[in-house]
């Protein structure tokens, strides 16, 4: 069991998940079921990363208390063997959106950057140091960032939970062993309880990078590598794909009635009868 003074142990109790605290300090060895990145293994997925000086992606979580961002090089977006290699992370206290954009541009001045951002509240001016109506999205675009996610809301927590952990489990996320803040976020970010419905938000600025960087990673993975299903033609079939297209690739179509619309579609009789369902009754 780890040892330490009381102040240190109380601090650990505040920042790490309850089940991990019980495992590390209370000798209770049940699984840590409330950790968000439960498939993350520091010993497997950390290594030195070589910058190939190509196009970059940045993932952003806007929080003026601690502004968080991740810069990564991404290989084979959308494919099962694609990877995200983290080149640098930022967790800057009391920082504006313009400040984080300028910091990234100083480190990567001439690179093409695609950005995936926190879309909650981007329609209003969240940066109070900027003129009214200037949003986070507009500020990033001024510095040459191309915003690639267009939905006006963030993905559901449950969706990013499944996508992120499946991606990490196959070795898709690679982090430098010296990236202290991101490693702490990957190991510590957790749900309020084992129901896995609500993520913990830290109020103290010295811990705010944990949920900020955690959100950055889950937004980036979910947008670039959504969960896919296998099909007989080897095509990418994403969650939410047009069901008519999915039906056209399902097995057994050769045994379905002929349809004038598309393979496996409604027959002439079904089209002519509309949605009327005949009520067959048997009289004895």
Provide a descriptive summary of the structure in words.
The protein is α/β, with parallel strands linked by helices. It has three domains: 1-32, no CATH class; 34-226, Nucleotidyltransferase, domain 5 (2-Layer Sandwich); 237-273, no CATH class. Helices cover 32% and strands 14% of the residues. The protein has ten helices and eight strands. The chain has helices at residues 6-15, 18-25, 42-45, 97-107, 136-142, 157-169, 180-188, 208-224, 243-247, 268-273; strands at residues 56-61, 66-75, 83-93, 113-117, 145-147, 173-174, 228-229, 237-238. A six-stranded mixed sheet has the order 5-4-1-2-3-6, with helices on both faces. A hairpin with a 7-residue loop joins strand 7 and strand 8 (237-238). The longest helix has 17 residues, at 208-224. The protein is globular, with a radius of gyration of 24 Å. 27% of the residues are buried.
Keywords:
single chain; 284 residues; alpha/beta; Nucleotidyltransferase, domain 5; 3 domains; six-stranded mixed beta sheet; two-stranded antiparallel ribbon; 8 strands; 32% helix; 14% strand
Number of domains: 3
- Based on CA inertia axes, which overall geometry fits? globular
Give the overall pLDDT as a whole number. Answer: 80
**What topology, given as strand order, has the largest sheet?**
5-4-1-2-3-6
Distance between the termini: 77 Å
Structural class: alpha/beta
- Strand count: 8
Radius of gyration: 24 Å
